[in-house]
Amino acid sequence: MSFLLSFTSFLFTLVMCLFISKCQDEVNASKITSKLVINADSGRLIPDTFLGAFFEEINHAGAGGLWAELVNNRGISRKEEVNTSAISPFVKDALDGIEFARGSSTSKWGSLRASMGHSKPFDLRYVAIGNEECDKYSYQENYLKFYEAIKHDYPDIQIISNCDGSKYPLNHPADLYDFHIYTNSKDMFFHYTKFDKAPRSGPKAFVSEYAVWQEDAANGTLYAALAEAAFLIGLEKNSDVVSMVAYAPLFVNTNDKHWIPDAIVFNSYQNYGTPSYWLQHFFIDSSGATFLNSTLHQSSSSIVASTIQYKNFQDGKNYLKVKVVNFGNSIENLKILIENLKSNVQPSGSSMVVLTSLNKMDENSFYEPTKIVPEKASLENASNAMNVKLHPYSVTSFDLLI
Predict the structure, then answer these.
(1) Is the pLDDT assigned to residue 74 strictly greater than 70?
(2) DSSP string spanning 122-187?
(3) What count of Cα atoms within 13 Å lies in the side-chain half-sphere of residue 195?
(4) Are 5 and 367 within 8 A, CB to CB?
(5) In this model, does residue 62 exceed pLDDT 80?
(6) Rounded distance, CA 158 to CA 301, Å?
(7) What is the per-residue pLDDT across 132-174, written as a single tens digit (0 to 9) for each?
(8) How confident is the model at residue 65 (pLDDT cuts 50, 70, 90)?
(9) 0.85 surpassed by pTM
(10) 251, 244, 236: which is closest to 294 by C-alpha?
(11) H or E stretch covering 385
(12) How many CB atoms lie within 10 A of CB 263?
């Protein structure tokens, strides 16, 4: 069995190598099916907090870009609600919790934290009032009590509302509004336009939970990851109104499953990343980068693309990263045209990375942990105007040195 799996992986790797090589061949102009026109002189900054993942662990808050968020008890559960007239003890409990996290080691609750071995306050920047309860009868009145009290004592804390502000402006004050989406692959793919018409003023969105789940997600399929990649491209495009985004959940122990799929799977001695984990690598450079305006002309509805300009922290050089999702079952011939670039794309130093597989429902596993991983190759035909081939059911990143 192990030999068969290894041989299958070898064959797929060989096919991928041949395909990546073919992607760099010149495509006949008459065969172009889509064209991406990029304006290198028109863009805006993406928030440096943009990309993340959701996990429950406050001890590393503030380390390496990990920011703490407190999801507060707001006097509401799935079956019960506390009337606003009786909410004061819950508000006090919230303030005590914030003091435990942020208070000095001489304060009442800060000293308790210090006695537990953490004398330095946690870098708590965000407080969410509730979780998916905007439709509850008492939510908004209760919310205002929490908002006013927390802002009075901690004016710098960002307050997150449970109410969705992506269609209409909120009718109450907030710094951010929470948005969750768990759906199937096709629906997730077409949600890449979700925030195109969101209000451009007022609180920004925190997409704190997103994932493809249920049947076509299985334990973490390529198909699910590609749909999520398209959704992320849409969020990147709308990063003027989307402040942060986090995949959820991050980890699952195969001996104690509560939710599937997850980004990283482990047991007592081994682990692997699902395709949804690996696609996050395509967006690592997005936070703090410049999003460039572009126009995609296509003959089908299966292509989604975006472009950023970023500085590589490893070599200190500037790059354009063109990300393209092909959600269809056939090869797409794409022309990439970069306009108003003040320099030329350098073939030497440019590269492409592809995430794909032989079957859209393929998964990684303990037996084949790297069945679906990003494959990198040099990009010898890189230029300001280039023709490329996109593998069926794939996400491709063209990192162009400028």
Answers:
(1) no
(2) P-EEEEEE-SS-TTSTTHHHHHHHHHHHHHHH-TTSEEEESS--SSS--SS--SEEEEEEEE-HHH
(3) 27
(4) yes
(5) no
(6) 38
(7) 889 998 999 999 999 999 999 999 999 999 999 999 999 999 9
(8) very low
(9) yes
(10) 236
(11) strand 385-390
(12) 24
Whether 306 contacts 233, CB under 8 Å: yes
Cβ(207)–Cβ(245) below 8 Å: yes
Query: How crowded is residue 186: how many other Cβ atoms within 10 Å of its Cβ?
Result: 13
Mean pLDDT over all residues of the chain?
89
124-129 vs 68-72, strand pairing mode: parallel
Tokens of 101: 């996290």
Cα 244 to Cα 254: distance, rounded to the nearest angstrom? 29
Is residue 387 within 8 A of residue 36, CB to CB? The reply is: no
**Cross-sheet strand order for the sheet of 68-72:** 51-53, 242-247, 204-212, 176-183, 158-161, 124-129, 68-72
Of 281, 298, 272, which Cα lies nearest the Cα of 365? 272
- Whether the Cβ atoms of residue 100 and residue 109 lie closer than 8 Å to each other: yes
| pLDDT computed for residue 61 by the predictor | 46
- Tens of pLDDT along 295-331? 999 878 999 999 999 999 889 999 999 999 999 999 9
Average of per-residue pLDDT across 351-376: 97
Nearest to 401 by CA among 348, 322, 339, 352: 348
For residue 176, the cross-strand partners are 160, 204
Give the list of residues 6+ apart from residue 343 with CB closer than 8 angstroms, or none: 402
Q: What is the band of 18 on the pLDDT scale with cuts at 50, 70, 90?
A: very low
Helix, strand, coil percentages in the chain from 3-state DSSP, rounded to 5 = 25, 30, 45
What does the block give as tokens for 243?
């402040």
Write the CB contacts of 176 (distance below 8 Å, at least 6 apart in sequence): 126, 158, 159, 160, 161, 203, 204, 205, 206, 243, 244
Check residue 303 and report its DSSP letter: E
pLDDT tens for residues 171-228? 999 999 999 999 999 999 999 999 999 999 999 999 999 999 988 899 999 999 999 9
